[in-house]
Automatic annotation (TrEMBL):
Keywords, alphabetical: Oxidoreductase
Occurrences of domain Ketoreductase (ranges): 9-205
SMART domains in the record: PKS_KR (SM00822)
Family in the record: Belongs to the short-chain dehydrogenases/reductases (SDR) family.
The protein, known as: SDR family oxidoreductase
Gene Ontology biological-process annotations: monocarboxylic acid metabolic process
Superkingdom classification of source: Bacteria
NCBIfam families: PRK12826.1-2
Record-level Gene Ontology MF annotations: oxidoreductase activity
Length: 247
């Protein structure tokens, strides 16, 4: 089969300064796209990704409509085009058992993991509809279908993200696709705090008996952003070594 290489599109990756987001930005830039990454605090890491990939690094608060509007305006001003590919990678953990979780912990995690994809997705949709082409990919988590002890806020946000993805897929078809990539445990900084014993326990829960890599997740995202994925929308694609089979 002949691959249909996409013309260079304008892509925005939130949370693109580290972890999965950084590898997604690298993969999209390697596919010929013009890529902007959004970050909140770690400018040094964002600048490093930008220097290595040729991406544009932009600081933005994507949990507020004004921050999202400014971010999309900056992308258009720099590239001369609206965002055509949106990948929502930004994530936040604030773990606690439900009985000990504060309202702020709940709210902060929902804001970053669910409200921000809603705001960015709704802002991107108009430009994609006008261009009659668009790709939105949300980064979910196996916690969104399995639950996760001590992470009720995170699991609830990722479960909500599945509903948001499928609703957007219905609303934006046929010109724009919206899909969700659902990683299991991935060897990133978000799990670096786990003890060796806990890491082994998690690995044993995965049929493939190992954690995933950011490159494996980024490859799935890059495919869903490609021309070849035009007939895939509303999908929840597990990249979890079989962890969520049956759910």
């Amino acid at each position: 089969m002949t691959s249909r290489r996409s013309p260079g599109r304008v892509a925005l990756v939130t949370g693109g300064s580290r972890g999965i987001g950084a590898d997604v930005a690298t993969a999209l830039a390697g596919a010929g796209h013009q890529v902007a990454i959004a970050y909140v605090r770690n400018q040094a890491a964002a600048d490093q990704v930008a220097a290595a990939t040729g991406c544009l690094a932009l600081r933005a608060d994507i949990t507020e409509p004004t921050g999202v509007e400014a971010l999309f305006g900056d992308v258009r001003a720099h590239f001369g085009s609206d965002v055509q590919i949106l990948v929502n990678c930004a994530g936040l953990l604030a773990d606690a058992l439900v009985g000990e979780m504060t309202a702020d912990q709940w709210r902060d995690v929902l804001d970053v993991n669910l409200t921000a994809p809603f705001l960015c997705g709704s802002r991107a949709a108009a430009g994609m509809a006008a261009a009659r082409w668009g790709r939105i990919v949300n980064i979910g988590s196996a916690a969104g279908v399995l639950g996760s002890m001590g992470q009720a806020n995170y699991a609830a946000a990722k479960a909500g993200l599945i509903g948001l993805t499928r609703s957007l897929a219905r609303e934006l078809a046929p010109t724009t696709t919206c899909n969700l990539v659902m990683p299991g445990p991935v060897d990133t900084g978000m799990i670096a705090h786990l003890s060796g014993k806990r890491r082994r326990q998690l690995a044993d829960m995965i049929p493939c008996k190992r954690f995933g890599t950011v490159a494996e997740v980024a490859a799935a995202v890059a495919f869903l952003c490609s021309e070849e994925a035009a007939f895939i929308t509303g999908a929840v694609l597990p990249v979890d070594g079989g962890m969520s089979m049956g759910h």
